[in-house]
Write a structure and sequence with these properties.
The complex is a heterodimer of chains A (about 350) and B (about 270). Chain A is an alpha+beta fold and about 350 residues long. Chain A has helices at about 45-50, 95-105, 110-120, 140-150, 170-185, 195-200, 220-225, 230-235, 305-310, and strands at about 5-15, 20-30, 35, 60-65, 65-70, 80, 155-160, 190-195, 205-210, 215-220, 240-245, 245-250, 255-260, 270-280, 285-290, 300-305, 320-325, 330. Chain A contains 9 helices and 18 strands. In chain A, helix 2 (about 95-105) runs parallel beside helix 4. The chains are: A alpha+beta (about 350), B mainly alpha (about 270).
Chain lengths: ~350, ~270
């Protein structure tokens, strides 16, 4: 049984009359990478800020390593936060930013400089010791922010949309680095994001939130393969939501078959007829959007094919086609709340 | 390129006239202050000399320029620091909000519309009624603060509204106490603005007249002294005085702006030229 690093019990946040986080329960295991995923306004950032101690809790408890921290100072929780847009102190250089917490603790100048430099080397920023934040690129600022957050030797690192300020290319590189740091440091990372790709790529545990509630929590594979409800299936993307006799099911777009020139007889009830409305070439894959009825949004389905299987029997926009799926790829969804 | 309309030309001329109106009189006074010893209050210049500047520092028949100048400078420096010591904490408190903070804010700002002379009269009356002697460094200081504090509070509210709260959260995350977060993070970041408020306090006080008239006590500040002299002194010594006081203002402003620019450059608020 792995031990829990963070436990949230009935955690609630109210802003006036509105409830941002509704009595959520969550367990995050030791030394894991946890992603809080959801659309903006779902309460994921508020949850993170409550764990950090920067947002007062309305109700419920926060346990870090089994210790009650709900009302503790941010710096006494064993957590450290990496802020959105990093929040590096603009008047301090790289070394002074990283040494800030040590300076606050009253660590002597030589000692704090030595320890700050160690962390700066860890994030490979030793060439920029005396630069100020505005003289650094987004990726460099992020590394400094990471080193600064690690300077308090946290057992849990909280990251608020850490990659959203970077360009797409850098985002993927920094994503790999964050994962590497998490593994090498052996501490828990809790990472808030609205990007499904990011959550799936990084998360040992992916927590999908909507309207202040947790809709699903599981491994990245569990969430992607077996979304528990329609919201999760839609938000995580790459799924078709289909109404069948057994109920609403989800089928991964890459598990769908496309039939150019009519449906085969064995397809049975697990098939639809429609028209190709969009074709997207994505390099290794082709994304085909098929609509049963152009006036209905729910009647649009997506089939993702490898380039080989697509070009074996290509379709063009406007073509009448059939789509089908097998019973084994069907996943029954729970009715979506509200 | 946007085509030039007749309106744009008109606005340019208007702006030019405005600048002339703004600086013309000051420039005229500056030029006339170099009037020769035989010259009068108006053009033409009869010779160019520093005669009136030197006579400025000699004992005057009327008025005591040196003392009033010293008083005004001291008072302005006093107001400058006391003002900042009031408005920075006030800005912090109003930003966090407290019971009645809106009322206090409104009352502070509303006082700006009360005619200066009434404020002065009220303070003067208060002191005379309570039997406390009115003086430039007591009642006068208070009267000046009634002018600088509302402005300062308004500026600080704007400054704190623009200050990203993430900096303070990051400081607290790193284990800084409230005081440490203010001392080591907030204060250095807002320092250029504070210098601006210092300057503002200085310049508002340095040339303030209506709020000093009835609250400043027996000894005149420089604006009062100059005002008194305009009816008595009929030589260009008045202009020399004007030139010198203007120069003091410009030096103070230039030093402040220089400091603000350097400080901003350090944090990257202004791109390096």
């Amino acid at each position: 049984m792995p031990t829990k690093d963070v436990e949230l019990i009935g955690l609630t946040k109210r802003f006036g009359d509105s409830v941002a986080v509704k009595a959520i329960d969550l367990q995050i295991y030791e030394a894991s990478y946890c992603c809080l995923l959801g659309p903006s306004g779902c309460g994921k950032s508020t949850t993170l800020r409550m764990i950090a101690g920067h947002e007062e809790v309305s109700e419920g408890d926060i346990l870090v390593k089994g210790r009650q921290v709900t009302w503790q100072q941010p710096s006494k929780r064993g957590t450290a936060m990496m802020f959105q847009n990093y929040g590096l102190f603009p008047h301090l250089n790289v070394e002074e930013n990283v040494a800030f917490s040590l300076r606050m603790q009253g660590v002597g100048k030589a000692e704090r400089s030595r320890r700050a430099r160690e962390l700066i080397e860890l994030v490979e920023m030793q060439a920029y010791l005396h630069r100020r934040p505005h003289e650094l690129s987004g990726g460099q600022q992020q590394r400094v922010a990471l080193a600064r957050a690690l300077s308090t030797e946290p057992s849990i690192l909280l990251l608020d949309e850490p990659l959203s300020a970077l360009d797409p290319f850098l985002r993927i590189r920094m994503r790999e680095e964050l994962k590497r740091f998490q593994r090498e440091l052996g501490i828990t990372f809790i990472h808030v994001t609205h990007s499904q790709d990011e959550a799936l790529a990084l998360g040992d545990q992916v927590v999908v939130m909507q309207d202040g509630e947790i809709r699903q929590s599981g491994t990245a594979r569990e969430v992607y393969d077996t979304p528990s409800n329609e919201f999760v299936a839609r938000f995580i993307g790459g799924h078709n939501i289909l109404k069948t006799e057994t109920g609403t099911v989800s089928v991964r777009a890459d598990h769908m078959d496309l039939h150019v020139g009519g449906l085969p007889s064995e397809a049975g009830a697990r098939a639809r007829l429609g028209q190709v409305v969009a074709l997207e070439y994505q390099g290794s894959r082709i994304r085909v959007t098929v609509s049963e009825n152009p006036d209905q949004d729910e009647a649009r389905h997506v089939v993702e094919l490898s380039d080989r299987s697509f070009y074996a029997a290509p379709a063009n926009p406007g073509d009448a086609v059939g789509i089908s799926w097998s019973a084994a790829d069907e996943h029954l969804l729970a009715p979506t709340h509200a | 390129m946007i085509p030039r309309s007749p309106l744009s030309l008109f606005l340019k001329v208007l702006m030019g006239l405005f600048l002339l109106f703004l600086y013309g009189p000051t420039l005229t006074i500056m030029i006339l202050s170099f009037q020769g010893p035989q010259g009068g209050l108006t053009f033409p210049l009869k010779d160019v000399s520093l005669h009136w500047f030197s006579s400025l520092f000699q004992e005057q028949r009327v008025g005591d320029i040196g003392s009033s100048f010293r008083r005004s400078l001291t008072l302005a420096v006093l107001v400058m620091f006391v003002n900042v010591l009031i408005v920075v904490p006030a800005g912090l408190a109003l930003r966090r909000g407290f019971r009645g903070s809106r009322v206090i804010f409104t009352l502070t700002i509303a006082s700006l519309v009360v005619p200066s002379i009434l404020v002065s009269m009220g303070i003067g009356l208060l002191f005379s009624q309570t039997g406390v002697e009115a003086n430039w460094y007591t009642s006068g200081l208070g009267a000046h603060l009634t002018w600088t504090v509302p402005f300062g509070v308004l500026i600080m509210i704007g400054v704190f509204a623009r200050l990203n709260p993430t900096y303070e959260e990051a400081a607290r995350d790193a284990g800084a106490s409230r005081w440490q977060s203010f001392r080591f993070v907030v204060l250095p970041i807002i320092l250029p603005n504070i210098v601006g408020v210092l300057l503002f306090g200085f310049s508002l006080s340095y040339d303030e007249m209506p709020r000093t008239v009835l609250a400043g006590g027996a000894h005149n500040t420089l604006p009062l002294e100059i005002f008194a002299m305009t009816s008595n002194v009929t030589t260009p010594v008045l202009y020399a005085l004007g030139t010198i006081t203007t120069l003091v203002s410009f030096v103070v402003i230039s030093l402040t702006l220089l400091f603000i620019t350097l400080a901003r450059r350090r944090t990257g608020a202004v791109k390096k030229a």
